[in-house]
Amino acid sequence: MPPVKIIGFSAFSGTGKTALVEKLVLALKALGTRVAVIKHDVHGFEIDREGKDSWRFTQAGADMVILSSPQKTAVIDQRPHTLWDNLRLVHDVDLILVEGYKNEPIPQIGICRKAAQKGLPFPPVHYLAVVTDDETLKTGAVPRFALDEIEKICTFLLEHARPLAEILPAEGQEIG
Question: For residue 149, what pLDDT is reported?
């Protein structure tokens, strides 16, 4: 079995990271690739709905709630997880796409949309590639793709994503 590979997508909020990752997941699945997505949400989110069993357990003080059905499982942990904690939960996939976590030492693709007027979080040389519609953005030797070049981006991902084992620290070991 080939190693699980990882690649991240880095951009400022409102530049279309989620839309791009969604299109890439659809295209990768059509190629038969098993895909996991980890999204970093700095704004916080709620998965529980008031009155539902999981919400009631959380309100009662549960630190962790696991919901499981024949079709899917969800883990609601009331403690923060690092990217590395989340990566250790992933299994039985070929490729992990990470949205956000722009400051983590993982291979990344930068995303920049001209309409967002925010540029890239880091200089282009920080990235394996840049996806943009801004023709004025100079990327030098860094490969660049248009926002709608989904098949070309997929090919690039499959060729340039790094094996997870190369970057994942040992259990209990911190990065940095």
Answer: 97
